[in-house]
């Protein structure tokens, strides 16, 4: 957690109470607090209300206005006892108040409660972004992430690629082997995708029923096509029997690659529809193959 107070002695008091149970970071100004919240993502901020330059209200307001820090709970520490100060703090998004002089047992109890609530909401948030069947990210995650990555790629003039893939003749697979086997097949394909992606910044999501998408920051067209080929081969290596497929005796995938080159300003939607069009072409040309293209504007 992070303790913010312009008086070093106040920080020391809280540090002594909390440091045996928690990792405690310290800041003596609002600016320092904001920087530490952005870089270290503490699970809780204990924030002094009255500070020179930027006061606690302003720090709280800034934390809540930034998507990167808005989920960090803030508890105000204050010697003020009037209710309007407290009301204002809650209005700005604080979760609690602790009054000075500090009572160690009350501080420990409130901190424990809010850290537990933070852990629970973190867990719920992460579940909301996962696909229940395969355990990879879901469409909601992808939609948010692709927009953010496109913004970053444009700012930094880096490439951004998408690989979309769809299982071939999957309806026939379900009809022949049953829905349970179909689900199992999707789980195995998802696991293979996870293993095929090498870089820490890469993401896989289940885009629809039997359609998956890989989001590849800082990856150019050649790199994305190579990865698509690796995925194509890795899926056949699974050798999942598919007697009803017209292209192979086992499960195969078709892939569409879309790439935003370094110097091009694209949009998330144009990149998605490019990859989607390429996937459609791969299907049209017989399936179990890869088509790709780059954005040109
Ligand atoms: P194509 O090669 O053109 O992609 O043909 P296809 O049969 O794979 O495509 P189509 O869109 O006709 O059928 C997709 C099938 O995927 C139909 C649907 O029942 C199945 N499906 C979608 N989601 C799930 C799922 O979660 N589990 C299972 N078992 N099947 C699913
Ligand atoms: Mg399909």
Question: Would you kindly provide a written description of the structure presented here, covering whatever features stand out?
Answer:
This protein has 297 residues and is α/β, with parallel strands linked by helices. The chain folds into 2 domains: 127 residues, Rossmann fold (3-Layer(aba) Sandwich), CATH 3.40.50.2300; 156 residues, Alpha-Beta Plaits (2-Layer Sandwich), CATH 3.30.70.270. The two termini are 45 Å apart. The mean pLDDT is 95. Bound molecules: 3'-deoxy-guanosine-5'-triphosphate and magnesium ion (MG). The site of magnesium ion has 5 residues, from β6. It comes from Undibacterium fentianense.
Features:
297 residues, alpha/beta, Rossmann fold, Alpha-Beta Plaits, 2 domains, five-stranded parallel β-sheet, five-stranded mixed β-sheet, 10 helices, 18% strand, binds 3'-deoxy-guanosine-5'-triphosphate, binds magnesium ion, CheY-like_superfamily
Q: Helical segment tally?
A: 10
CATH topology of the largest domain: Alpha-Beta Plaits
Give the percentage of residues in beta strands. 15-25%
Read across the widest sheet, the strand sequence of neighbours is 2-1-3-4-5
Distance between the termini: 45 Å
Q: Give the proportion of residues in helices.
A: 40-55%
Low-confidence stretches: none
Mean pLDDT, all residues:
95
Bound molecules: 3'-deoxy-guanosine-5'-triphosphate, magnesium ion
Shape: elongated
Modified residues (4-aspartylphosphate): 48
Protein name: diguanylate cyclase
EC number: 2.7.7.65
Organism: Undibacterium fentianense
